[in-house]
Write a structure and sequence with these properties.
The protein is of the alpha+beta class. Strands 1-2 form a two-stranded antiparallel ribbon. α1 runs antiparallel to α4 and α1 crosses α5. The two termini are about 10 Å apart. It is elongated. It has five helices and two strands; from the N terminus they run ααββααα.
Length: about 120
């Protein structure tokens, strides 16, 4: 696995875990959780390897999206921001870090880390 693939894996893993932590805190704060399924059904998987840059897969309870769209209280009430806000925030952060974060210095650091493992 090259330096670029390793960099992509690290970024995806870090941003995925950050999103899970921040979203979990928002869910606990905004919802009256009874069974805990909405928190326990969430999962992040980072895939990658030779010939594949990387893939971040987020699995969640389907009704998480509906809770995000549903309004609290009356029809003009505020919405719970527990899904889209975190998904698109993580997407924007991943895109920015992948576009501008892989410099020559970072590449040499990942290459030297791979040489030390051999």
């Amino acid at each position: 696995m090259g330096a670029r693939e390793r960099f992509v894996q690290v970024i995806l893993g870090f941003e995925g875990e950050r999103m899970m932590k921040n979203q979990g805190e928002a869910i606990k704060r905004q919802l009256n959780i009874k069974s805990g399924y909405i928190l326990s059904a969430r999962d992040i998987v980072v895939q990658g390897g030779e010939g594949m840059d990387g893939r971040l897969t987020y699995t969640h309870a389907i009704y998480e999206r509906f809770l995000d769209m549903k309004r609290k209280g009356k029809s003009r009430g505020k919405r719970r921001k527990i899904h889209n806000r975190f998904i698109f925030g993580a997407y924007a952060s991943i895109a920015k870090r992948l576009m501008y974060g892989f410099t020559e210095d970072v590449a040499t650091r990942y290459r030297s880390a791979a040489d030390n493992l051999k």
